[in-house]
User: Fold these one by one.
Assistant:
Number 1:
Amino acid sequence: MQLIQEMEQRLAGWLEAIAGSATFAALEKIKVETIGKSGILTTTFKELSNLSIDDRKLFGEKLNKIKNTIGAAISNQVKLIENLTITEKLKTETLDVTLPVVNDSFGSLHLITQSVRRIRDHYHSRGFMVLDGPEIESDFFNFDALNIPKHHPARQSHDTFYIDGFDETLLRTHTSCVQIRTMMKMGLPIRMISIGKTYRNDPLDATHSPMFHQIEGLVVDKGGITIGHLKSELRKFVAAFFEVQDVAIRLRPSYFPFTEPGMEVDCRYTKENGRLKITKDGDSWLELGGAGMVHPNVFRASGIDGPAQGFAFGFGLERLIMLRHGITDIRTIFDTDVRNIRHYA
Ligand code: PHE
């Protein structure tokens, strides 16, 4: 077979061309011309079908050998080029790690993250579990189980985002839903907090944001948990959060459907050089959040039949952060201005 002889003669030339290729493109070209789909070897293979069985076997083997030799040479050369490229890169792109650092600012945790961690630490040290709950909630956990039945006026005061196309599914308007979920799952006793995102259909302005964080607390048992315990726990938390020795807490009667009695949590503060200062003997009162003794209907809805008693509280995290850092616009907390993040690092 004349063609095969010709192939054998050309092999040396091909191998030389391959060994002399410096780029992947050059190799690809040779590959296409020889062992590619319409390469010269591939077309020769097709012609073998015209030969006798014996010849087909003989020449087929020869042709295969040539093909494999070319294939192996090409992959060898590919590896060689790859190694060369890496060596070349290493030569030109090495970093001199002994150079002095130009910019040593490595970023910092966001104010929200910092605060969440501090609060978590405080409650861990007080023996609380720190739990999470879903942000997409059902009407049942966000309202019904918290003694806020359909058409209850309290539903109007929570400007709720409902999820399109899903019945009675919403973005939770508060973290109180986690109270129900925890009691259903664990029964009594419970000592937990939950910190997370909540949503209300409020326009974004200096004091409102459609998304904000709440800290929910729940301490319940079969009995023996009083408003005195609540007040003491609140005092410790507020003092820890504002990093002061002691604070004065006032519980002012208020209404939440899921508490009985319900109350607003105030603490003493004073103005010093125009800045707010939380202090035990401040001359004014500041509202911090809501609290109360858990309503019997809430225990019932959570599947707790026997005797049960305890307290719950809820604080807005951004409000606490604003008070602590003297921030007057909530948008400062959520914007992406790195100068703000650095400032509160
Ligand atoms: N869930 C209430 C709110 O969002 C706060 C609260 C929690 C009040 C627990 C009392 C007890 O306003």
Note: Strands lie at 129-131, 136-138, 169-171, 190-199, 211-221, 249-254, 259-272, 275-278, 284-294, 309-316.
Number 2:
Amino acid sequence: MSILKGKVAVVTGSTSGIGLAYARAFAGAGADVVLNGMGALPDVERERAAIESDFGVKAVYSPADMAKPDEIAELITLGENTFGSVDVLVNNAGVQHVAAIEEFPIDKWDTIIGINLSSAFHAIRAAVPGMKKRGWGRIITTASAHSLVASPFKSAYVAAKHGIVGLTKTVALELARSKITCNCISLGYVWTPLVEKQIPNTMKARNLRRDEVISDVLLAAQPTKEFVTVQQVASLALFLCSQDAAQITGANLSIDGGWTAASSPPQMRSAF
Ligand code: NAD
């Protein structure tokens, strides 16, 4: 499937996890990609080179810090200068901090709002002029079940993810006549290396078996008791880039194993 042949995708936070899966899915559909995120340079270079050799497209990497508006604008410029356009923008970089509201560190609040919410504003603001000029664009932001429901101790993350929904709707309306769609994807618990690494310690700390940690701790809020996979997330993003998805805009699409359909108390809600 080469639905993105000749197109260029910028994916923030794509050095690991979900972001990397988006980048590989777009490359698999023919797009040149701009990778971004933190990580050891040799690891990033390995992933970048693998994208080029696996899919026969071009990939470049930018270490732009999504907490810094100037660097975000430069990330979009890098895509435009290197490949001639930015046609698909995925705002995916995200961080988390867990603390009671009265103890929530002010710098953590600012960082989470900066990386999880304001970075999407800055990237969209920088990418839209080029998309408008070319008359086509796809903007997708990784939100969370926490764009729809709250959990205690995650004030900044929940506020940022709720904010993404408002930003998505507003941008979708502004661009409705420009053949540019803007949507967000709200995830439940996704199986990533980060999640996998938590399991041995949790087994030890709670004296539980691996399957009990997965079902009763990690997936406490997810009715299917199964993780979302990064491939499932990337497949939806790729569909949003297709012509068949041209009338999906301003939407908040859930992939959460039924999490936000359930009415369990907030204490049951899990990590993301
Ligand atoms: P991850 O930690 O593997 O990926 C986060 C990415 O963001 C990494 O590439 C990291 O380098 C990058 N990043 C962090 N700070 C950055 C900064 N200042 N500048 C540039 N890049 C930065 O985690 P993930 O699970 O793949 O998360 C990706 C997105 O998915 C996040 O927005 C997260 O909130 C969301 N999400 C994840 C889950 C889950 O279960 N994993 C659930 C719901 C939502």
Note: Residues 12-19, 36-39, 65-67, 92-95, 115, 142, 144, 187, 189-190, 192, 194, 272 surround nicotinamide-adenine-dinucleotide (CB under 6 Å).
